Amino acid sequence: MSRVVFHAVKMEYERNKSLGVAPVIPHGPIIVADWHRCPDSKEYFTKIFQKKRRKTFGLLEAPAMPPQIHVDTVRYKIFLAGKSGVGKTALAARLGGSDIPNMHYETTGIETTAVFWPVKLKENGRVLFFKYLFWDCGENALRRFDHLLPSCKEQVDAILFLFSFTDHGSFEDLSNQISRVTDPSDRIVKLVVGTKFDLFMHTDVTEREIASFQETWGLPVFRVGGDVNGGLGEVAPLLNALAEHLWHQDCVAASCVPPSSQV
Predict the structure, then answer these.
(1) Coil, strand or helix: which one is 72?
(2) pTM over 0.85
(3) For 123-180, what is each residue's pLDDT tens digit?
(4) Is 181 strand, coil or helix?
(5) pLDDT digits over 51-101, tens only?
(6) How far, CA to CA in Å, does 207 sit from each of 33, 200, 212?
(7) Backbone angles phi, psi at 243, to 5 degrees
(8) Residue (of 197, 213, 168, 182) closest to 91 by Cα position
(9) Range of the domain at 141
């Protein structure tokens, strides 16, 4: 968790304590699910669109809200891990609403993608902009240059482990990826994403295998396709899940609750 996010959450807990409100960890869903479909979200989501397409934000850019509307931004670093060819670059483009390259190419170094996502908290109706900075690094580059993986993991808040539904080997490699990239003591959010789910006629991974993996590792598995149509319906579940897990993780850290109570 970044210092900015930690202090923002910590200040909210301290403010609640000063008002005599006990700082408790939320139970159940923290954010409003499918808020992007609600009428009151329109003025926020329009700020991440430009000419009916998702707006591309640079590292120093942010959505411009009217002066009378104050929205805090919380920032998170997310590393995309997985075998070469599973679709890490395509997923980053998909989540950011950018065009996916027509031809596959190996990412030669580190590429970053900034994605803004408005979220409404259930407890108090507060709206936040979650800024996800996705770090994508080619698998061959990671193996060739020892300094890249530590750079990707430095102050990371979450890791998405990717596999392709059309490549059973990438699914079998998940356990190696998790063991290689993370340590049991890491207090970070870990999610698994299966790509190319839209190619169901060519899938090499069965639902039984997915269920067995989730039971063994205790990690949720999300499914995404390969096309970008500019809509939010297909990316919202993953972006909302990231917000849910990351905000809960920050609440746990800010209130000094043992990590065993995390979602």
Answers:
(1) strand
(2) no
(3) 889 999 999 999 998 887 877 888 988 898 899 999 999 999 999 999 999 999 999 8
(4) helix
(5) 888 888 888 889 999 989 889 999 999 999 998 888 898 899 889 888 776
(6) 25, 11, 9
(7) -60, -45
(8) 197
(9) 32-56+70-231
Interior angle at CA 167, CA 229 and CA 106, nearest 5 = 70
Tell me, yes or no, whether 167 lies in a domain. Answer: yes
Residue 37 is given by DSSP the state: G
C-alpha dihedral sign at 102, 156, 242, 168: positive
In a domain, 9, yes or no: no
Task: Count how many domains the chain has.
Answer: 1
Q: What angle do CA 138, 144, 150 make, to 5 degrees?
A: 75
Q: Is residue 254 part of a domain?
A: no
- Annotate 117-175 with DSSP letters as a single string: EEEEBTTT--EEEEEEEEEEE-HHHHHH-TTHHHHHHTT--EEEEEEETT-HHHHHTHH
Contact 44/118 with Cβ under 8 angstroms? yes
CA separation for the pair 161, 171 (Å, rounded): 10
Which residues have CB under 8 Å from 87's CB, separation 6+?
Answer: 162, 164, 195, 196, 226
Is 123 within a domain? yes
d(CA 160, CA 109): 18
Rounded to whole angstroms, the Cα distance separating 73 from 76 reads: 10
CATH (domain of 165): 3.40.50.300
Let me know: does 165 contact 195? Beta carbons within 8 Å: yes
